[in-house]
Amino acid sequence: MAYKNEIELINALKASRGEAWRNINPEYAARMRAQNRFQTGLDVAKYTAGIMRKDMAEFDADKTKYTQSLGCWHGFIGQQKMISIKKHHGTTDKRYLYLSGWMIAALRSEFGPLPDQSMHEKTSVPSLIEELYTFLRQADARELGHLFGDLDKARAAGDEVAEAAAINAIENYETHVVPIIADIDAGFGNEEATYLLAKRMIEAGAACIQIENQVSDAKQCGHQDGKVTVPHEDFLSKINAVRYAFLELGVDDGVIVARTDSLGAGLTQKIPVSKEPGDLASQYNAFLETTPVNGPEDINDGDMIIKQDGELRKPVRLPNGLYRFKENTGFDRVVLDCVTSLQYGADLLWIETEKPHVQQIAEMVNAIRAIVPDAKLVYNNSPSFNWTLNFRQQVFDAWTEEGRDMSEYDRDKLMSVDYDTSELAVEADVRIRDFQSTAAREANIFHHLITLPTYHTAALSTDTLAQGYFGGEGMLAYVRGVQRREIRRGIACVKHQDMAGSNLGDDHKEYFSGDQALKASGEDNTMNQFEVA
């Protein structure tokens, strides 16, 4: 940020306008420009797309440089996450936001809480993207406002060292604005509908759009039953639609994440038309469960007949009209889905699995990388997994295979609190802690996310407060469980007036009105009680 240069430019502009601009302070204007670096969602999308491309290249060279995000269902949640990251880790580097379709359905729909089945309003997706970036930009404005205050205090005290330090902090300020990986579900309709929604998402700031290969009007949560996939040609048309949306809006580095649900999907709604042996349609149809057709007696009214390997076959169709895949074909369908998506324009992959098992993921990724060597994954560290039980059972199985005596453990009851201090539980927690770094190294996972963690943290913290406040603790439940902890941890929103923009407003009033400004941050403001933590 060229703070001093910006002041000089505005000063020259002021001089060119003459006496009419005599009340304009060039430094104040430069501050407001600095606090509004990203003026449109497209500015955000172009900036964050560049970040993702840089991070992807760095990951290709060094598997320790994976990226992470948490799902956020409100702008305030995303803002507080990024403020906390900067506070605790000093930088937002390699940290993103995730926009979860599940949480939009559950928390942001005008219909009320809905399951993750694409029943919510599609416009709520770009609306949340815009909201998240509004809050992140406000976090920038607030933090820069504090730095400007430090600069003013240093100047008033005649402290040139402090003044130089403040200017350096302003010049080298790191924004809270980071990439969002945004869930477009299965596109909310046909390829034109996907294109139109993708445009709105990009205009709101999305540099990365995740799309899945389920049937749009039969979409299910990735961790529920009854998932139905579409043929490759249908999915690729939607990948094309998203790419064209990026290109039309000038976001040339836009990132597309192609998600496959084939590992857990046993059904298809549509049998594609094969034009020549071995084409994509033919490969897709080869996975269908079929029965032989030996004569007219094997054909019922309305049956569909296809020819495979020189034989007439009848696809097995369920009463609802859907067609079933052969059992144990999920692995091969995932590999074909991923290879095809990358070969036709996707940048990253998402494989929805039923458990967090590094070896399982790595086996699929290795098969994909044998054909597309730079294939990288976005992986859902899902709250739908029982992480404790999964990893305790993984350790149990590994130790059993090693020949260790496991008689003190009951594999089916390893979730029990009785095992919490056991050697097995300790080892399982180590593996959970190291899961992301291990999976980045072994399974080429570029980005780790948790889809709906803040859904759960909101419920957990509310439960804890409600238990005490409405019980015997009364006000102490809030003071000890919330406010005192905020103060001790240095959480900025303990001064909630400042976080909501009160000090920003005071600054603007001073810019606009000078000494006449009626400001809220005087000595009677109760937020002053939190100056000393």
From TrEMBL:
On cofactor binding, the record's note says: Can also use Mn(2+) ion.
GO molecular function terms attached to this record:
isocitrate lyase activity; metal ion binding
**UniProt-listed InterPro entries:** ICL/PEPM, Isocitrate_lyase, Pyrv/PenolPyrv_kinase-like_dom, Pyrv_kinase-like_dom_sf
Q: Which reaction does it catalyse?
A: D-threo-isocitrate = glyoxylate + succinate
Q: Which UniProt keywords apply?
A: Lyase, Magnesium, Metal-binding
Residues the entry annotates as binding substrate: S100, G101, W102, G222, H223, R259, N380, N381, S382, P383, S384, T451
Q: Which cofactor does it need?
A: Mg(2+)
Per the UniProt entry, what is one GO biological process?
carboxylic acid metabolic process
Q: Which CDD domains match?
A: ICL_PEPM
Q: State the Pfam families in the record.
A: ICL (PF00463)
Q: Which residues bind Mg(2+)?
A: D183
Check the record and name the SUPFAM superfamilies matching this protein.
Phosphoenolpyruvate/pyruvate domain
Tell me which domain of life the UniProt entry assigns to the organism this sequence originates from: Bacteria
Question: Would I find Repressor among this entry's keywords?
Answer: no
Indicate the residues that form the catalytic site.
C221 (proton acceptor)
Q: Which NCBIfam families match?
A: PRK06498.1
User: Which named protein is this?
Assistant: Isocitrate lyase
Organism of origin is Umboniibacter marinipuniceus
